[in-house]
Amino acid sequence: MKLFLDTADVAVIKDMLPTGMVDGVTTNPSLIAKSGRNIAEVIAEICALVEGPISAEAVATDFETMVKEGDKLAAIAPNVVVKLPLTWDGLRAARAFADKGVQTNVTLCFSAAQALLAAKAGATYVSPFVGRLDDHGAVGSELLEEIRALYDIHGFETQILAASLRHPAHVTAAALAGSDAATLPADTFKALIKHPLTDRGLDAFLADWGKTGQSIL
Ligand code: G3P
Predict the structure, then answer these.
(1) Residue-range definition of the domain harbouring residue 139
(2) Pairing with 35, which of 16, 25, 171, 204 sits 20 to 30 Å away (CA)?
(3) How confident is the model at residue 96 (pLDDT cuts 50, 70, 90)?
(4) Active site members
(5) Is 183 in the pocket of ligand 1 (CB under 6 A)?
(6) Which of 164, 166, 179, 188 to mutate to test the pocket of ligand 1 (most atoms within 8 A of CB)?
(7) Structural domain contains residue 108
(8) Could you give the CA distance from residue 67 to residue 73 in angstroms, rounded to a whole number?
(9) Which atom of ligand 1 is nearest to the CA of 164?
(10) Residue 217 in domain
(11) Which CATH number do you get for residue 89?
């Protein structure tokens, strides 16, 4: 499963890149607003830093303007993925981009029926929002399982990009559901490695090693 960073903060990306675990980046209008930067500039900078797919979202709600915005975003770099909302116009735009070989990420997916439409529109990725479904009283990870089953039964190639992941259990649930990718804020990314027994065990090993007076080098 690919791991993407869900941020438009270049400093955060630079901090996480040395882990060797960042396979791509996703942004959305809220994250761009939070960065306080111009969308074209920040997306260009991220694309130069990270080789993998970088999602940049169109903000128009009508098909024609969405396509114009998507064309402009896609022209920034070859690894831009045009992110589009799960609306009829967004799906129509996804089909138009698929037909001209531009990658898309259909976002704001909250049901298997919506994911079916995204796949039929030829989306490269569909982004089900796990945490927001949990907030709504549902079990978000169950949607990932449903979409996986639906896509496998029908041989759809659209990749499931689990989004709105708030903690490590969301990420493991996404992996166990067979998601192709997961996008995580840096805090969730960093929390994946944490276990108190790892810290305690390492402290004990190092303390014992210190007593030997040896050096490996
Ligand atoms: O990629 C979508 C994600 O940013 C939404 O996360 O935590 O705002 O629901 P959240």
Answers:
(1) 2-212
(2) 171
(3) very high
(4) 83
(5) yes
(6) 164
(7) yes
(8) 10
(9) 6
(10) no
(11) 3.20.20.70
Q: What tens digit of pLDDT does each residue of 54-91 get?
A: 999 999 999 999 999 999 999 999 999 999 999 999 99
Q: What is the DSSP secondary-structure string of the chain?
A: -EEEEE---HHHHHHHGGGS---EEE--HHHHHHHTS-HHHHHHHHHHH--S-EEEE---SSHHHHHHHHHHHHTT-TTEEEEEESSHHHHHHHHHHHHTT--EEEEEE-SHHHHHHHHHTT-SEEEEBHHHHHHTTS-HHHHHHHHHHHHHHHT--PEEEEB---SHHHHHHHHHTT-SEEEE-HHHHHHTT--HHHHHHHHHHHHHHHHHT----
Taking the alpha carbons at both ends of the chain, their separation in whole angstroms is 37
The answer to whether the predicted template modeling score (pTM) of the entire model surpasses 0.90 is yes
Q: Kindly indicate the confidence band of residue 153, based on its pLDDT and cuts at 50, 70 and 90.
A: very high
Ligand 1 centroid from CA 213, angstroms: 50
Number of domains in the chain: 1
* Ligand 1 binding pocket includes 132 (Cβ within 6 Å): yes
Any domain includes 170:
yes
Decide if 78 is inside a domain: yes
Asked if residue 105 has its Cβ within 6 Å of ligand 1, the reply is no
